[in-house]
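Students often ask why we bother encoding 3D structure as a string. The short answer is that it lets us treat folding as translation between two languages. Here is a chain of 256 residues written in the first language.
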Amino acid sequence: MNRLFLVASIILTVSSFATAAIPRAYRVDSNGKSLDPVERSLCGVNDMTPMISEPVKMQEMGTPIGIYEATIDGSTGYCTGTLITKDLFLTAQHCAAKCEDINVTFGFLKEGRSEKFSCKEIIETGDSSYENDFFIIKLAGSPGVSWGWYDVSEKPVPPNSPLLMIHHPQATPMKVSQKNCILLEEKDNFLMHRCDTQPGSSGSAILLPNYENPTETRVVGVHTLGGCDDTASTSNSGPSMHHLVTISPTLKSLAK
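And here it is in the second language, the structure alphabet:
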């Protein structure tokens, strides 16, 4: 089984997101205090659950998911990301930093349980537009050998498909967004979804899950933008893999 957050300006190119907050990593100071307002991106009731309370099979599905940490100008930024090969790690471009300032930790389900890997090389960086908000780095030590990875899929995802997001909101231990986590539609190269997120969830893989055969679970997008609230028509979103493979040679070469 393939078992399996720094501030950056983003140029507003998609009118659909004119009211969305500029995406950024979740930043904290040297005392761990948040430097930015915590903006709500919950789709009504908070349906996120702690991974540590999930069955073993779900915990295994979370092993390729890492908490991304980078230090710059005296503050620390956090995002989430996913292994897509034994050493390539996919997150959001608005989380990007110098390679020497980046570390990724896997297995952060509770305090004291984790394994950290450093950045070895920056492979690809998006162009700072909303729809191209992706960042791929190579990690030292091939963590995927132990932690696994998820393949990426370039296939379009039908509306109303159940999705799965595994992430580290506000740099906390791993959470699962599964209940009421669905795709509304793919629009203007974005997956518009109703999966609960918070700052720190940026860069999370939007997964099309296969619970019977987790090896068939695929990365179909990258979560980058909030916007969800109690209103059923609102959504969180991120660029679809269906789009990203058209601009990323790396992702195109890996797509199934």
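Translate back mentally: The mean pLDDT is 88. Keep this in mind for the problem set.
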